[in-house]
């Protein structure tokens, strides 16, 4: 049960290690990505040139993107406007409503969508509960807000458990 809910389908160091061709082989047509500590640090207001290129590469592959964040509208909107991508703020992940809404807005079925995020208890759990392919990335920054720090304690234990069992091969 723990494995089914919390183990990501992939675990990578950063968004830049995600193979778009492999996603296309899996018939993935849409990406739901977290914002803070997934794309940029939680305290970075704008997308970096490298992040902009990542979004451009997805677009060139014909893969749609929606940013789904638990953060507030001002933060998410200002970040996404320069990228010209759809977004959902105050998403209340891991609840699935925002993930289903994002899939629906892209006109895609759950088996055509991947969720990318840095948190096991929000992004991976929410994606897995909704039958979506999940990719977990190492957080861009080591600092977090209070609630996230609590989540990270639980997450660290789950990651260590999955590594001991051989479910996750990559070492930090």
UniProtKB/TrEMBL annotation:
<dbReference type="InterPro" id="IPR006549">
    <property type="entry name" value="HAD-SF_hydro_IIIA"/>
</dbReference>
<dbReference type="InterPro" id="IPR036412">
    <property type="entry name" value="HAD-like_sf"/>
</dbReference>
<dbReference type="Pfam" id="PF00702">
    <property type="entry name" value="Hydrolase"/>
</dbReference>
<dbReference type="InterPro" id="IPR023214">
    <property type="entry name" value="HAD_sf"/>
</dbReference>
<dbReference type="InterPro" id="IPR010021">
    <property type="entry name" value="PGPP1/Gep4"/>
</dbReference>
<protein>
    <submittedName>
        <fullName>YqeG family HAD IIIA-type phosphatase</fullName>
    </submittedName>
</protein>
<dbReference type="GO" id="GO:0008962">
    <property type="term" value="F:phosphatidylglycerophosphatase activity"/>
</dbReference>
């Amino acid at each position: 049960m723990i494995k089914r809910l919390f183990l990501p389908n992939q675990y990578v160091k950063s968004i830049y290690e995600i193979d778009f061709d492999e996603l296309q082989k899996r018939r993935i047509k849409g990406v739901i990505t977290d914002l803070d500590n997934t794309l940029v640090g939680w305290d970075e207001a704008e997308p970096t040139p490298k992040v902009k290129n990542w979004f451009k590469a997805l677009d060139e592959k014909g893969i749609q993107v929606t940013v789904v964040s638990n953060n507030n509208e001002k933060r998410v909107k200002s970040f996404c406007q320069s990228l010209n991508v759809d977004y959902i703020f105050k998403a209340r992940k891991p609840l699935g409503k925002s993930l289903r809404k994002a899939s629906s807005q892209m006109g895609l079925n759950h088996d055509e969508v991947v969720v990318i995020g840095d948190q096991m208890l929000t992004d991976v759990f929410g994606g897995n509960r909704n039958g979506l392919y999940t990719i977990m990335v190492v957080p861009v920054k080591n600092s977090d807000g209070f609630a996230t720090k609590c989540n990270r304690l639980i997450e660290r234990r789950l990651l260590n458990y999955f590594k001991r069992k051989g479910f996750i091969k990559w070492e930090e």
